[in-house]
Amino acid sequence: MPRCWFGPRRWLLCVTVVLAALLGAVLGAGLPAGAQAQRLVVYTYDSFAAGPAQAIKEGFEALHPGVEVVFLAPGSAGETLARIIAELDAGGTDADVFVGISDTQLPRAIDHGVFMKLDRSLIPNLDKVPVHLDFDETGHVIPFDHGYVTIIYDSRVLSEEELPQTLEDLTDPRFRSQLIAIDPRTSSVGHAFLMWTIAEFGDPGYLEFWERLAPSLLTVTGGWSAAYSQYEAGEAPMMVSYSTDTAAGVYYADSDHSRILTPKGQAYQQIEAAGIVAGTDVPELAHRFLDYLLSEEVQGLIPTTNWMFPVNPEAPLPGFFAKYAVVPEEPVRLDARLIEENEQRWLREWARLITGLR
Amino acid sequence: MGSAQRRRRRRALLLLLPAAALLTFVFYLPVGTALLAGFRDEAGYSPARFVALLTDPYILGLLRFTAWQAFLSAALSVAIGVPLGYLLANRSFPGKSLAASLVMVPFVMPAITVALGFLIMYGVNGWFNEVLAGLFGFKVRVLHTLWAIVLAHAFYNGPLVARMTQGAWERLDPALEESARTLGAGPFAVFRDVTLPAVMPGILSGAVLAFIYCFMSFPIVLSLGGARYSTLEVEIFTLMRVLLDYEMAAALAALQACVSLLFAYIFLRLEGRAPYLFASARARRARPVGGRIRDAWLWALLAALTVFFVGPMASIVAHSLTDPAGGVTAGAYARLMTAGHDFHLGAPPVRSIQNSLRFAALAAAIALVSGASFVYATVRFVGRRLPFLETLSLAPIAVSSVALAYGLSVAFRGPLQVVPQDWRIPLVHAVLAFPFVVRAFRPVLQGVDARLVEAARLLGAGRWRAFVDVELPMAATGLLVAFALSFGLSVSETTATLMLARPDQVTMPVSVYRFLAARDFRSASAMAVLLMAVTGGVFWLAEMLAAWLRRRQGGTAHAS
Amino acid sequence: MHREPPAGAAPAAKEPGPGGLPGLALIDLHKRFGPVAAVDGVSLAVAEGELVAVVGPSGCGKTTLLRLVAGLEQPDTGRVLIQGRDVTDLPPERRDVGFVFQQFALFPNMSVAGNVEYGLKRRGIPRAERTRRVQEMLAMVGLAELAHRRPDQLSAGQQQRVALARALAPRPRTLLLDEPLSALDAAIRVRLREELRETQRRLGITTLLVTHDQEEALAIADRVAVMHAGRLEQVGTPWELYDRPQTRFVAGFIGRGNFVDGRVAGDVIDFGPLGRVPKAAVPGAGPLPDGPVQALVRPEAVVLQWPGAPAAGAAREEAAAAQGPAGSALVAAAVIVDVIFGGERSLVQLAVHGRPWIAAVFGAAVHAAVRHVGRPVTLRVPPAALRLLPPA
């Protein structure tokens, strides 16, 4: 070894010191804040976390000092449900409340015992919700918003005359590779759309429909965000989405190029619900949280942060929202019992079909 | 057995302890229990489900497709990686040192970033098609086809093949090629008769490794292909996380593990085959890429490689700096840096950067310690190669990360709940980085002549002293590369982190997902750019440090 | 004292080969690597069938020179001619040279026979002829029964022979050897260099050999070129280099010797404490002007005289001549420091006026030297044994 001051031992020492310092600094920054008095852990899906969650957290904490609301969004609604179920199976979950389960996925959740039965007396705001939206007869969840799943199209690419008038129209060769669909196994939007096709074409007629539809599909993405980014990038002019997308476009980008299709005046109605996770240690607080979700304050937030319709009719709708958000004349919904019995089979059949149709 | 022998054995076992602990508790036990669920029956355990899978035409179709796309992807990775490896080993060209230090960055980029870059670059309105349309008047549909998947896989694994090719090429004794020439062989005959046989094992093992990766790939297939291009891993994910059919998912994961471990074993056999036969201590002199006509194809190759690798990454950078109207703005970055942008729920974006760095530093440290001690034990204490042990150490890349994450989520609530929260994610990352530390460090340690250590010991140095004074400085470059790789892998790990992290443990890739979910595509790109910058920065730093070390030592690290 | 004549003049070859063209001609070759001039104006002619060894210390550029001839490097300026044909612009595969590498460079993926056959294949020689020639070459180097072994199964000596067979199989016009024996043990080295020489003579192939071992060069080469810092200092037969070195460097590099400093003054050369000798008695001293001068004395020319005994280390006649005209030999008092036994010739290390000297004694005379270790002896150098060197 050459003789120099900066010999291998010193070098090693220096590097170790530097690394240790770095590590210490970075680790030190990670120390969490001191624990609060009471914690309410809310599991939800990612766009909800990005949307109303912050405002809801601040509002609820203001009303209940000493309480900390913690949101966790492991992914889409389907992924979040899976996470809760996995945690419950493994012994216990931190979640107290699950916000964002869709009505089509509820049977699966109840099967796994995700929710506890609600004490509706602790949720006074529930009385304001119209009966047809309060869909859960088993008393496990409350609705907090609803929307309509349908096809949206880019009006800059497709003119009025070219539009499909029915779901069957979508299978026309002129729409080859022009529709972005979403995987019903991982996404509640995709799930809703699948239910719509089952409602329209029956079982097993829906499989034949999808077979005819396949050439029109550009792709089937895993979630809504992936579909939307491709739609926005101009990959295809149509995608499965919500009827509030025009409004969202106006709000964010001052553009109404995304328009809503209502084939035969229809769209599939999806109701999103929230419930209290079984085994929670703060049931009373959780009930109050659910009640807060239905308050005018929060419901008034829903349109511009979650891009759905509030369930509380007293909540104000922003003007542009009323103008651009579309309500179909004939909302479609599949019977909950039917879904409960057949969902697993439907998803499997659909998956087998679609992977064979490249 | 004499006391010296006993001491040796004790030392070897002690050195193997960190690796054994890490792999057993953070990998084998969780994975084992998860996969075992696939064989569970009402009456105990039976292979019935496993057998049923093997006869299900749908599953077989998935297996076929998974293998097919993996094969195509590996082939394209070789087609891209070998020329790149050739250039890095034999030629000098402007920007070579930068290219050499950053060549592994694509390998450690998270899937969402790659998908984003490909979308921006190869989309119907992406600039690739714009250029094509401008020059030739037509566009190509790349995305949502099998080719998008294969291209993206080649993007990831091309650098891997390149590195292994480069290594094999650099070790090739130039005298062999020269003697062929003096015997009358033209350049093509030299390549066919001398170069190719020497470099082939490196290429093949790179190809097999790429195959394994593409076989196990999941987020890329989903984002760039869609649900129609389902692979085994996608099916496992769906069964486990969506349909909640754990038993079926576990059985499928077991099937998948059998196939990929088989390929892992093949890889190890290929790697072991003596490329030393062709090796020499004399360094190859890198010929510059000149201005002659003969070199024109090399310039074209360089240009094509640059476009292929830099294109998607540059697209993301460009995307992050523009606003929807088309103007240039750094607004996305400003949004990232404001502490008030709080939708990460208790963790502002800056916090996700901190988390990523913190986890990565810890993960790299754990991986380095366990990997280096494992390598040291197997190289210095165990003379021969043990393929079984090797396969065990390679397993983390050949087993479904979904199954691993599931097994861990169960374990962290059960036997592993003593592990503090802040250590969980780094431990998972360390396990995933472990095979790479072994691969990067072992050849370097083997290159340090054992006689040098003996000389030090005869001069009075104890084993630890000898290690610090003799082996460590020489093997330091290997450690640096291992550190950079582990760090990069940890920073970009997404699947397991998504499934296991708590709300305040948001990392950079998870932030990108969240931004995308919030429709804030510019911020997603900006965060992706930061991610690339961090990864690239670490690699570049490691390369600089390694070069400095090499200069200080001068000459080769092994006695001739 | 002259260097190799520049290009254009008749090459100082031993004898021109058939046809009169030198087998290999290097004309004013230059090659730089960055700031370093590895080959700095080298011209050399090798006659047809001659074996020339280029010898020099490591880093003097001799390997580069060889690679220039082979075409593995391109010269900055200068030309290479093989049998009169200018090959400077030709790639190696078209120059028709055989090259033996220091580390043999045998193809590990081919058998011995495959290696030897390789050059023949490249030249498109049909299979039957190839097989015949391979057998012939392997028989020539004595490895016929190892034809199907792989290189890594051979000893170093065997590998070297295979490398030689491989290089010679295509019957090249020139054979180039890059330190062919340095990777071998001492014992095999001597034996193999004899074999090399014999093979080369038998085939009559023009050969250029590069080595750092001057003993090897002197042993087998027809002529030797000493290379230093990119230039050829002297080219000549082994005896010429040994007996009449033209530069200080060559004198020190070839063989062993003792250096003495003196001064030319009038018609004597004064060597200080060693005495003075008439200028006429020293070969080549005639034209020298007055001034400082240095002389080389080979060990075997040193005469040792034991106290009280007749002169040892030389024949009696030489002793008588050394006495010659009184005071015409260099004389000094010396002390024997050590004796290095060497079989037929042993070396005696002496201290003369504090400076180290070396003398040779032959055969049984070594006993006397050993008996006198640590004791004073008288040292005599006859003036005819002095070899004058140019000033540094």
> Briefly, what CATH class of the largest domain in chain A?
Alpha Beta
Average residue pLDDT of chain B: 83
- Which secondary-structure class do the elements of chain B indicate? mainly alpha
Biggest chain pair interface: A-B, 74 and 67 residues
> How many helical elements of chain A?
13
The residue fraction in helices of chain B comes out at over 70%
Write a concise keyword list for the protein shown above.
heterotrimer, A: 358 residues, alpha/beta, D-Maltodextrin-Binding Protein, domain 2, 2 domains, eleven-stranded mixed β-sheet, 13 helices, 11 strands, globular, disordered N terminus, B: 560 residues, mainly alpha, MetI-like fold, two-stranded antiparallel sheet, two-stranded parallel ribbon, 4 strands, 75% helix, 1% strand, disordered C terminus
Give a nutshell description of this structure.
The complex is a heterotrimer of chains A (about 350), B (about 550) and C (about 400). Chain A contains 13 helices and eleven strands.
Question: How would the blueprint of this fold be written?
Answer:
The complex is a heterotrimer of chains A (358), B (560) and C (392).
Chain A: H1 8-29, E1 38-45, H2 46-50, H3 53-63, E2 67-75, H4 77-90, E3 97-102, H5 106-111, E4 141-154, E5 179-182, H6 188-201, H7 205-213, E6 217-221, H8 224-232, E7 238-242, H9 245-253, E8 258-261, E9 266-276, H10 283-293, H11 296-306, E10 309-310, H12 319-324, E11 330-332, H13 336-355
Parallel strand pairs in A: 1-2, 1-3, 5-6, 5-7, 9-11
Antiparallel strand pairs in A: 3-9, 4-7, 4-8, 4-9, 4-10
Chain B: H1 3-36, E1 40-41, E2 44-45, H2 48-55, H3 57-90, E3 91-92, H4 96-102, H5 111-122, H6 127-136, H7 146-171, H8 174-182, H9 187-216, H10 219-225, H11 232-242, H12 246-272, E4 287-288, H13 296-320, H14 331-337, H15 349-381, H16 387-398, H17 401-411, H18 421-447, H19 450-458, H20 463-492, H21 495-500, H22 508-517, H23 521-553
Parallel strand pairs in B: 3-4
Antiparallel strand pairs in B: 1-2
Helix pairs in contact in B: 1-15, 1-17, 1-18, 2-12, 3-7, 3-9, 3-13, 4-23, 5-10, 5-13, 7-9, 7-10, 8-9, 9-12, 11-12, 12-16, 13-23, 14-23, 15-18, 15-20, 16-18, 18-20, 19-20, 20-23, 22-23
Chain C: E1 24-33, E2 36-46, E3 51-55, H1 62-70, E4 77-82, E5 85-86, E6 97-100, H2 112-122, H3 127-140, H4 156-168, E7 174-178, H5 186-203, E8 206-211, H6 214-220, E9 223-228, E10 231-236, H7 238-243, H8 248-253, E11 258-265, E12 268-270, E13 276-278, E14 291-297, E15 303-305, H9 316-323, E16 330-340, E17 345-352, E18 355-362, H10 366-371, E19 376-381, E20 387-389
Helix pairs in contact in C: 2-3, 2-4, 3-4
